[in-house]
UniProtKB/TrEMBL annotation:
Residues 5-228 form the Endonuclease/exonuclease/phosphatase domain. SUPFAM superfamilies: DNase I-like. This is Endonuclease/exonuclease/phosphatase family protein. GO terms for cellular component: membrane. InterPro entries: Endo/exonu/phosph_ase_sf, Endo/exonuclease/phosphatase, GPI-anchor_lipid_remodeler. It comes from the Bacteria.
C-alpha cells in the first residue's frame, strides 16, 4: 500500500495564530504518508527554509513549487516523497488579475509502475478555478495520451491529483469535471480544522480501483497546527508493492458527489 496526503499548512501558523513549525513536523509524522502535497509553504523570508527543514526532519525527498516571491522568500506548493523523484516541472495556473497559482507535476519511482503526481492549490474565485481546472485537465489528458493505449491499466502510470482546490460548492463545475475525468472519490471535510464543514482538500487517483479509502486526519494536534486538516488516501497499486500495511483510517467522509 502507498499512503498519499495533502495538507495546507498555512505557512506554519496554527489555528491559534502562532507560528510553530514543530507542530507541522509532528503532524506529518502522524500521517505515516509516503507522498505529501503541501500548500502555503513559506521559505526563506526570515532565513528559515521551511521546506528543506520539513524534508530533513521527515527524511523525504522534496520538490518546491513556489508561486510567489515576497519579502525575499518563496511561498507556494511543495511535494515530499519517500520515493525517488524521476522528473519534476512546474505548471503555471495563474489567471490575470488574481494571485499567482501553479502546480507541481512530478514522476515518482513507485513500484510496480511510476506514479505521476500533480500537487496544486487553486484560486478563490469561481471563474479562476474553472480556468485552472481546464488547464489541469488538458495536462492530464496529454499525460494520458503519452502513456499510450495499453489495455492493462497496470501497464500505465498511476495518476494522482491532490491539493487544496478551494471549491466550496458541492455542485461546482470544476468538481464535476474532475470527477468525470477521475471518477468520483470520497471527499472528507477538512476546513476549518477545529470544526470542519467544507471539503476543500481533495485526492483523486486513476485508475480509480486503486483508491482504497480517503479520510481527514483529525488528531488533536492536527486540529490546531493549521487552519486545514490533512487529508490522507490509501492506494493499492498492486501485489508487487512491498512495504508496510495501511494504517487505519476513519470511514467518515463527505457524501459522494454527482
Amino acid at each position: 500500500m502507498i499512503r498519499l496526503a495533502t495538507w495546507n499548512i498555512h505557512g506554519g501558523v496554527g489555528a491559534d495564530g502562532h507560528f510553530v513549525p514543530n507542530r507541522i513536523v509532528d503532524v506529518l509524522r502522524e500521517l505515516h504518508a509516503d507522498v505529501i502535497a503541501l500548500q502555503e509553504v513559506e521559505s526563506g523570508r526570515t532565513g528559515f527554509d521551511m521546506l528543506a527543514w520539513l524534508a530533513e526532519r521527515c527524511g523525504m525527498h522534496s520538490v518546491a513549487g513556489p508561486t510567489l516571491v515576497r519579502g525575499g522568500g518563496d511561498y507556494g506548493n511543495a511535494l515530499l516523497s519517500r520515493f525517488p523523484v524521476a522528473s519534476r516541472r512546474l505548471l503555471d495556473l495563474s489567471v490575470p488579475g488574481r494571485e499567482p497559482r501553479g502546480a507541481i507535476v512530478a514522476t515518482l519511482d513507485t513500484p510496480p509502475v511510476p506514479m505521476r503526481v500533480i500537487a496544486t492549490h487553486l484560486g478563490l474565485a469561481p471563474a479562476e478555478r474553472r480556468a485552472q481546472v481546464r488547464r489541469l485537465l488538458a495536462e492530464l489528458t496529454e499525460i494520458e495520451a503519452a502513456n499510450g493505449s495499453a489495455l492493462e491499466s497496470a501497464a500505465r502510470e498511476t495518476m494522482v491529483l491532490m491539493g487544496d482546490v478551494n471549491e466550496w460548492s458541492l455542485w461546482g463545475r470544476p468538481l464535476r469535471w474532475l470527477h468525470r475525468w477521475f471518477e468520483d472519490a470520497p471527499a472528507p471535510r477538512s476546513f476549518p480544522a477545529r470544526l470542519p464543514l467544507f471539503a476543500l482538500d481533495r485526492i483523486w487517483v486513476k485508475p480509480r480501483p486503486m483508491l482504497v479509502r480517503v479520510a481527514a486526519h483529525r488528531s488533536r494536534l492536527a486540529r490546531i497546527a493549521s487552519d486545514h486538516l490533512p487529508v490522507v488516501a490509501v492506494v493499492d497499486p498492486g501485489p508487487a508493492v512491498p512495504g508496510r500495511a495501511a494504517m487505519p483510517l476513519s470511514a467518515r467522509a463527505w457524501p459522494r458527489q454527482a
